[in-house]
Amino acid sequence: MNRLIETMRDVVIANRILAREEVVDAYGHVSIRNPEDPDRYLLSRSRSPELVTSDDVMEFTLEGEPIDDDRTPYAERHIHGAIYEARPDVNSVVHNHSHAVIPFSVTPSRLRAIAHVGAAIGKDIPVWDIRTRFGDTNLLVVNMEHGRDLAAKLGENTVVLMRGHGCAVAGRTVEAAVMTSIYLQVNARLLQDTMRLHDEIEYLSDGEIENCSQTFLSDFSVQRAWEYFRRRAGADSL
């Protein structure tokens, strides 16, 4: 199969999985860097993730300009381009508004890994506040200036929270970005439950995060999980 066509199909599968796992709802999106041109990426037109098909997938420059396509794009596509621009190691980006994650973006409570499946979120999760540099806005990342500021806050990390909005997740592969997004939400819910039980929490150590992440994102683990998530999302036939 042509690599570009296969990647377009993967965009659809990733959207379906994220919707099925309730990481995204009517809003949110996932992109993949063009495997044939690293200065471009593939992202659906503006459409709810559960409804995305291969025909909806558009190609963009890193500046967010559509390639020969006049359909309506996502307003926040600049999240994707700015991260790809800043991070050559990243090949997939997820943006979502997980309700479990947002409380950690508006309180002093830090979102940290407490479960082995949550280790892929990393050792440090910074919080980006659009108001710090841009004042009062609608909290949407609608241009490259916003996107680059967000990407700078992400730095070399895997996840960046967006104050009062959601988060962006970067992955070396689409599988890594999607699975990390799913278990970021799982870990956030577990941490909230744990905080209700006690204020003394045993977080994963840096070494545990590194070791658990390697296992979680190993080929064996990813193949097993991806088959499961595809089946649950009804995406086996795509």
Produce a short descriptive summary.
This protein is of the alpha+beta class and 238 residues long. It is 39% helix and 13% strand.
Q: Would you count the extended β strands for me?
A: 7
How do the helices and strands follow one another from N- to C-terminus?
A: HEEEHEEHHEEHHH
The general outline is globular
Spans of at least 5 consecutive residues whose pLDDT stays below 50 are none
| Number of domains as seen in the coordinates | 1
Mean pLDDT: 97
Separation, N- and C-terminal Cα atoms: 13 Å
Describe this structure in words.
- Helix 1 packs parallel to helix 5 (174-197).
- Helices cover 39% and strands 13% of the residues.
- The chain is of the alpha+beta class.
- It has seven helices and seven strands.
- It has one domain: L-fuculose-1-phosphate Aldolase (3-Layer(aba) Sandwich).
- It has a seven-stranded mixed beta sheet with strand order 3-2-1-4-7-6-5, sandwiched between helices.
- It has helices at residues 3-20, 78-86, 130-134, 144-154, 174-197, 206-216, 219-232; strands at residues 29-33, 40-44, 57-61, 92-96, 127-128, 159-162, 166-171.
